Amino acid sequence: MWLLLAFLSAALLGFYDAFKKKSLRDNAVLPVLFLNTLFCSLVFIPFIALSAWAPDTLHGSLFFVPAAGWEVHRYILLKSFIVLASWVFGYFGMKHLPLTLVGPVNATRPVMVLVGALLFFGERLNLWQWVGVILAVLSFFLLSRSGKKEGIDFRHNKWVFCIVLAAVLGAVSGLYDKYLMKQFDPMLVQAWYNVYQVFIMCPLLLLLWWPRRSESRFRWDWCIVGISLFLCAADFVYFYSLSLDGAMISIVSMVRRGSVIVSFLFGAMVFHEKNLRSKAIDLALVLLGMFFLYLGSR
């Protein structure tokens, strides 16, 4: 069950990336990110309020947000800082790089998570899972190499650096999620970390963007709402999958990077990006890797 939820989360993340790319086109990054955090928090505030003031309404359901003190919320606040730092770098990289390149770079994240899971959580993979991991890792590196044909120098491009740093922080967040899901309720973590992000974004917006708003103009795009809705759905399924018995963060993280397939299709059909033939061959390896991961986790 947890693996199927991971695949669902991957598909939702693919739509999230596509809506994010569309929203960031010729647009100011920080206001888009702020609105994303705001809309995500608005999704969860009703559940927080109902759980506190009318607990019988949601008690026993997946949407109930249990009460917790500062000894719990401090861990959730740390999660907010890690995720938001990853998003800031990721959004800037996404704006300036092709979607079919950003996806593969982000897809290196499971490799980092896998190493962390083996070192810190003692997870072990069976033969089929190792085959899936090796194929997926190979395909991700081939996809990244295909991106070089577009004239982007990985060593000297600051936007590539932003994407890589976002991936590293995302891997840290993934490992931290496994720890949080062992200790706390998934809905408690997801609801409150989204709320905290709004308060963290406010000073960033006022100090970094507002004084330069005439140079970095913001325009409204309804795709911004889509970013929040798909992200909330993807994260809800993701957190719930990690809370299930037997869930392995190394596998869940790897499967979620399968979102590159969905974002690739958007990059090809909607954004008309280049070098699609070589990237399509590499994507076939992604699909094959995901299949072996599924076989090994049945």
From TrEMBL:
This is DMT family transporter. PANTHER family: ACYL-MALONYL CONDENSING ENZYME-RELATED (PTHR22911), SOLUTE CARRIER FAMILY 35 MEMBER G2-RELATED (PTHR22911:SF137). GO terms for cellular component: membrane. The keyword Transmembrane helix applies. The chain crosses the membrane at residues 30-54, 75-94, 127-147, 159-176, 191-210, 222-241, 280-297. Keywords: Membrane, Transmembrane, Transmembrane helix. InterPro entries: EamA_dom, EmrE-like. Residues 2-144, 158-294 form the EamA domain. It holds the Pfam family EamA. SUPFAM superfamilies: Multidrug resistance efflux transporter EmrE. It comes from the Bacteria.
